[in-house]
Amino acid sequence: MRGRIKKKKIADQEQHYQEHVQTEYLCQLCLRPTTKAQRDKHHLIPKSRGGVETVILHKLCHQQIHALLTETQLERHYSTIEALRNHPEIAKFIQWLSNKPPYLRASIRSSRDKGFL
């Protein structure tokens, strides 16, 4: 896709994004605005381990967290937003995401060494 067709598609995506932002929430991890459709609640301590406190994240950020970390790791070492931001792979992901549009959709692959910390 090139030229004017690509520009039109990008303009349409931006317009669609602007129309669907109702109440603007910020992702607590990457600090970027999220649409209602791209919003997820993340339990800082996994629900299966008794966690009740939640934060609002982009679906991409939420998927990245669960692709990299086990529930045990989340409970023991990464039960705060600051701890998650300090994880090297998540910090790298946030840096990559920082110059992408808020309506970006991408696939997240699970880490091969998930669980080894």
Helix-strand layout with pairing:
Elements: H1 3-20, E1 25-26, E2 33-34, E3 39-43, E4 54-58, H2 59-68, H3 71-76, H4 81-86, H5 88-97
Antiparallel strand pairs: 1-2, 3-4
Throw out a few tags for this protein.
117 residues; 5 helices; two-stranded antiparallel ribbon; alpha+beta; two-stranded antiparallel sheet; single chain
What's a concise summary of this model?
The chain has helices spanning 3-20, 59-68, 71-76, 81-86, 88-97; strands at residues 25-26, 33-34, 39-43, 54-58. It has 117 residues and is an alpha+beta fold.
Quote the average pLDDT: 82
Number of helices, where a helix is a run of at least 4 consecutive DSSP H or I residues: 5
For the termini, the CA-CA separation is 42 Å
The figure for the number of domains is 1
Helix content class:
40-55%
* Strand portion: 5-15%
User: Uncertain spans, ≥5 residues at pLDDT below 50?
Assistant: none
| Strand segment count | 4
Shape: elongated
What order do the helices and strands follow? HEEEEHHHH
Give your account of this protein's structure:
Strands 1-2 form a two-stranded antiparallel ribbon. It has one domain (24-117). By secondary structure, it is an alpha+beta fold. It is built from 5 helices and 4 strands, in the order αββββαααα. The radius of gyration is 16 Å and the shape is elongated. The mean pLDDT is 82. α2 packs antiparallel against α5. The longest helix has 18 residues, at 3-20.
